[in-house]
Amino acid sequence: MNDQIQHNLKELEIDKFQKDLVHWFIREQRDLPWRKDSDPYKVWVSEIMLQQTRVDTVIPYYERFLKKFPTIEAFANADDESVLKIWEGLGYYSRVRNLHTAVKEVVTQYGGKVPNTLKEISTLKGVGPYTAGAILSIAYGVPEPAVDGNVMRVLSRILLIYNDIAKPSTRKIFEEAVREIIDRKYPSYFNQAMMELGALICTPTSPSCLLCPVREHCQAFSAGVEKDLPVKTRKKSTKHVDLLAAVLKTNNGKYLIRKRPGKGLLANLWEFPTVEDGNFSPMRTTLSAYIKDELKLEAQLETGIFTKVDHVFSHLTWAINVYAGSISDDIVDAGNYLLVTQEELEEYAFPVSYQTIWKTYKEKYNL
Fold it and tell me: Which amino acids are annotated catalytic?
């Protein structure tokens, strides 16, 4: 932490800042299901779900998840397919895979009790500094920083910090700052209040400074530069990929699906047969050739696509042109392919883009 930030910290009336922030949170906090109690398992699940996902989106997933897996033991004993299915549509599937692995370790190594020390909890798969701090402070009352994007934005303005928040090294600066100012009597309220302030008041653009409970402590507001902070460099440009996919039905009313590889993007989720679009032949020809090469089957594809689906990842965009067609029931060397009934298909976990394809297909063909 540089001398300027140290100076800005000394300028902050920490006791009054804590009091204003915590009292605001107690009065104004949103009624969210994971705030009903401080069970460390529930806190953990909610924090993993909330990473890179909006609160409104998370609420129904969180409630369904805990209905299906009400205890840490129930989740630890779940099979991989049911875990992916309950997470279906929430994205960033590595989060739930890591959570599942870590929960199994908690059950076997810690008797089902989530560790309450930074050293132990940080060894669990997928538990980084933010998640560790959130669980320890909210569930156990440990004054440990929980620094996410919201917190960095709030603190960059409160303490006039111009370090680039896109750099991993900058997080350490903010963690050190939180250690200086965290309310040691109410660390749970303090950390949640910082996140809540960033979500509701101290927003990325057009912050509602006139409604801010800690405005008088904000050095950026005092200097009139609140809209200039935080400093964040732009992401690199994303890659674009054109894909061809086919919903293929057999004479017996089954559908062909494929399991994605066990590593990489959307690992172990299911999809319809898909190939990257080459620019050397008509799309239908490319797709038919792929199916013939993969499965030794002749696919009868309809002339035109029945839908096009665009999907945006953090580093990649997909444009999927989708055909409908038919194949025989005889699959040779199927590998990761399966023939399933419509009812069975609904039990497998698909990425959002393929859920959209299936929904459109059912509507078009009156299923």
Answer: 47
